[in-house]
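Researcher: Here's a chain I'd like modeled. Treat it as a single chain, no partners, no ligands.
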Amino acid sequence: MSQRISKRHFLRGAGVCMALPFFESMRIRSDQSGKLLPAQLPHVPPTRFACIYFSNGVEPAHWWARTSGGSMEIGPGLLPMEPHRKDMIFLKGLYNAKAVEHPSPHLGRIPNLLSGAWVSKEQNTIRVGQTMDQLLAKAIGHHTLLPSLIMGIEPTEMRLEDGLSMLYGSCISWRTDTRPAMKEIYPARVFDMLVGDGSERHLERSVLDEVFCDAQVLKARLNKQDQAKLDEYLESIRDTERRIQRAASDVTLEGWNPQLKSPNMDRPEEGLPQDIPRHMRLMMDLLVLAFQMDKTRIATCMLNNDLSQMNFGFLKGVKGSLHLDLTHNGKDAELEAMYLKTNQFHTAQFAYLVERMKQIREGEGTLLDHSLLLFCSNLFDGDRHQASEMPMLLAGRGGGNLQSGRVLDYSIQADEERRACNLYLSIMSRMGLSVPRFGDSNRPLKWL
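Model: Modeled as a single isolated chain. Structure tokens:
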């Protein structure tokens, strides 16, 4: 190996060559959180978590829920959830303080959705904070083929916006403070990740064996900061190694076994679906398949990127405007009406997921009973870039006695009771991971 370390280095061995990330900057550091491994109860279905994200907030006048006469009433924005009012909790007033403080009205308020962390303002430094789904993945991901499933509809963007990378606007799941969990937007590829035949495992295994030897030699020639960067990169390779090992073995170490052993849906067609409603439904179906077959217990799906360029012309009554234009409507009545339709469309995707999971019997309950599904956006009033609260719904019973069919209003509570990270601590606890604090929180969510 050459004595000179180039900006773009490669690991080589026996004809194998794997490209490394750039080492141009010394500012990127690895800062991974510790992990606890939760015990699993035998013969009891595991608890799953999924976050379904939609961009640019809601039309506030239509996004509400209240309890009247012992039952829940909901606003027009939530209309598709009407049949599932008893299965959901309407959360009002939760927010991330670091998002409110950030000067970027968009990119300072999306990548920290699930972490509550500060988003770096430095153009050349990507840094947010490890998200709660990835903390869970590190703790319980060893039980499944995929530690977590990261999906989306729109591709990851790398352009600049507000002087910051649109990587921030394309990722809500972050494996570490500096490395996002990149989403898969092709349904066929997601299907293959879940039920692939394993024909490439031997080749992948050989590649990993070869590159690690060269990596150790390279590491000795790097300074401490670049060593941390290399360690972070190699950890992603180790994730692949662990996935291969899990995929090669069908042995379940727990007393519980999934009822569905093979896929109950056909492999989606190659390529990216051009029909947005079909694309989203396919992703919801794949999420259900992943949970039902116990291929993963943690998932996120971005229905849009932030600053989304998605065109909703397929909706009746919506014409001539991209989603971003509809959300930034200046309170124009016609645009507001179309904005409401996009809110309802997003909610309909979540309602579809809830309905499908309600129909699947599992143990003494349903797949929904053994799940926690979070539906949310990073902004409230998208037109005002309002981050002082976030629209949030929680569906499912988390495998236990979580009481749904409620409206929980934190908007008039003290600041420490309004932190979204309180919710994340509660979710992680119900998933079997107890940590003393996360983000800006050191307490579970009151009343949950």
